[in-house]
Amino acid sequence: IERSVDKVTALSRARFVRSDFELAMQMGVEVIALMTLIGGALAAVIVAFTAYSHTARLRGELAIIKAMGMRNRSIYLSVMAQAFGITLMGFALGIALIELIAVLLPQVLPLISLAVAFGDVAQTAVAALVIALLAALLPAYTVTRVDPVTAFDNA
């Protein structure tokens, strides 16, 4: 292309993305950083609320199985496994949507490209899982402190 057309520079996709990223940084790294921080905080709140509310909804059932003899360790493991599964499913759905958007976006807005780095996805997945597991532990903790006799009163 560069040989055929004067005053034109052809870039590979990787180089274009890097150049586009550098331009974005020059235009306002503070705004992008703030938007990323707000988006990340909002995502963390949503993940935490989902894990917490799911476990809180199961509080009665967990109290009953505790009264039936399930150990605290098993309750914690069950709650953590459920939080892990729910977060993993949500994350997988998010990745699928991002991939779909990455394919469709250039067709709708040809001047905009979307690049998703595996490292960023992995970091986000680890953060989401840690947040979900921690959020699920609070309701599980309250269940482990339940008196087995009162577990059947609220069921």
Strand content: under 5%
Number of helices in the DSSP assignment: 5
List SSEs in N-to-C order. Answer: HHHHH
The overall pLDDT, averaged over residues, is 83
Shape: elongated
**End-to-end CA span:** 73 Å
Per DSSP E runs of 2 or more residues, the count of β-strands stands at 0
> What is Rg?
23 Å
* Class by SSE composition: mainly alpha
Helix content: over 70%
Largest sheet, if any? none
Uncertain stretches of 5 or more adjacent residues:
none
Model description:
It is a single chain. The protein is an all-alpha fold. The protein is built from five helices and no strands.
Q: Quick recap of the structure?
A:
The protein is mainly alpha-helical. The chain contains five helices and no strands.
Helices and strands, with pairings:
Elements lengths: L12 H45 L1 H9 L4 H37 L9 H27 L3 H4 L4
Helix pairs in contact: 1-3, 1-4, 2-4, 3-4
Task: Spell out the key features of this protein.
single chain; 155 residues; mainly alpha; 5 helices
